[in-house]
Here is the input.
Amino acid sequence: MVLASEARVSELIDTETKSWKRDLIRNVFSPFEAKQILNIPLSWRLPEDKRIWHWEKNGRYSVRSAHRLTKETSSKECQEASSSNDQELWKAIWRMKAPPSVQNFLWRLAKDILPTRSKLRRKGMLIDTICPLCFEEEETLDHLFMCCRFSQQTWFSSTLGLHVASHCFLKLWMSDCLNKKDHLAAHIFGITLWKIWQGRN
Here is the structure.
């Protein structure tokens, strides 16, 4: 650890009493930082300063542990964001002024429990997974409602005139569109999703 004045941690320690130089620390650091430092216990052996990588047992940095840490942090952030988006999505679905059958469909769509061909294949059914509308790619929810040429033409020719963003995920797209201040647009969006599913069937 290097201070703003290029001092070392050892310069903050009284080697005779083997304790922090409290007055010096309070003069150099902010009250919050000083409190954090003074709460760190000191070893009676006073070993030399060295860098420690907290996420490895041996204290040594490794690309593997940094990669794992990055993935864990990213996963946690995604889960938190997903949980928040889910709550908004459920509220939007149940406050729609639409028939219960449409609301139930939208809920099943958001829960990823509609029987697409790829899902049925994973459950053991011997079935062709190609999309029955465009016959170009595997039928997943993202493909069927966003990437399929048939669906894209439907969105664009609707009164919404939507262009589907290629990098977007279906649930996020649903949450954005169903939570619009324009309730009529949100209603049309939900009904269009339902009609695409009906057309597919």
Remarks:
- Residues 1-6 have pLDDT under 50 and may be disordered.
- Strands lie at 13-14, 19-20.
- Residues 134 and 149 are 6 Å apart (CA to CA).
